[in-house]
Amino acid sequence: MQFIHAQDAPYSIGFIPASIAEGDVEFPLYDKWHLSGQADFQLVTQGSYETSNPFAFTQRVVVRPWLKYSGFKSVKLWLGYAHNQKYAVEEAGNYETLEQRLIVMGTFSQEMPKGTIFEQVRFETKFFDDRNGTHQTVPRLRARFGVNHYLDGNGKPLSRAPNIGYYAELMLKFASKDYAEEHFDIFRMSAYYSAGITPNIHFLAGIIGQMQLRTNGTQFDVYYGPVFSVKYSIRPKERETFDSVDGGAD
């Protein structure tokens, strides 16, 4: 069943399989100022309402450079830019456009005996041309709450400093009324396993599910599927929890 129509409300729900693959590189910049950089590369594929293959269509390709400040004990601050090339997927109603984002993000982590709890707030502004060719500027506020559980590993590849992580994230958009009247944008959840292959290379493998309201204000798309990420750090790390990973189909 691809669509569910509510009897007492003008909403419909469509289900779309998707996959997210991301590769990140982290590198030091200026130790005295606690500054480092990171470059993210992401590929998102999807099926459609009628196609169950999450790899059937390329939805978007993303390049995202970050500047990170880690001078506080429990807080990390990020400044980033994202270059999103989105492609048309006619079966799902997606149109081709180039979307650019400016991003400010902060993450607060609290240590537990065998893990961490983290809260993340991200403010981003999206710039793109809509399906009518009208340029849109859409600010968006994102709030994420997540937990990491540290597992006992044996120090071998795929089980070096392993973690089980999960988070929930809410996104609100503030667009012009002629583009979208509703503020709700996306609710996303993800669960994953992450560990080190070497002290410099860590990976994440998991699943993601999200509900997104289309700009017509009446149709929800539920994306679901696998997510995979690999991160290379110039400096060795004992553990990587992927708190800032941006896997999602939107």
Structure notes:
With 250 residues, the chain is mainly beta. Helix content is 0%, strand content 64%. It has an eleven-stranded mixed barrel. The mean pLDDT is 93.
Shape: globular
Number of discrete helical segments: 0
Number of strands: 12
The radius of gyration computed from the alpha-carbon positions, rounded to a whole number of angstroms, is 19 Å
Strand order of the largest sheet: 2-3-4-5-6-7-8-9-10-11-12
Cα end-to-end separation: 22 Å
- Main sheet makeup: 11 strands, mixed, barrel
Structural class by sheet pairing and helices: mainly beta
The arrangement of helices and strands along the chain is EEEEEEEEEEEE
Low-confidence stretches: none
Overall pLDDT score: 93
Task: Give a short synopsis of this structure.
Helix content is 0%, strand content 64%. With 250 residues, it is an all-beta fold.
Write the layout of secondary structure elements.
Blueprint: E1 3-5, E2 12-30, E3 35-46, E4 57-69, E5 75-86, E6 97-112, E7 115-129, E8 135-150, E9 160-173, E10 184-196, E11 201-213, E12 219-233
Parallel strand pairs: 2-12
Antiparallel strand pairs: 1-2, 2-3, 3-4, 4-5, 5-6, 6-7, 7-8, 8-9, 9-10, 10-11, 11-12
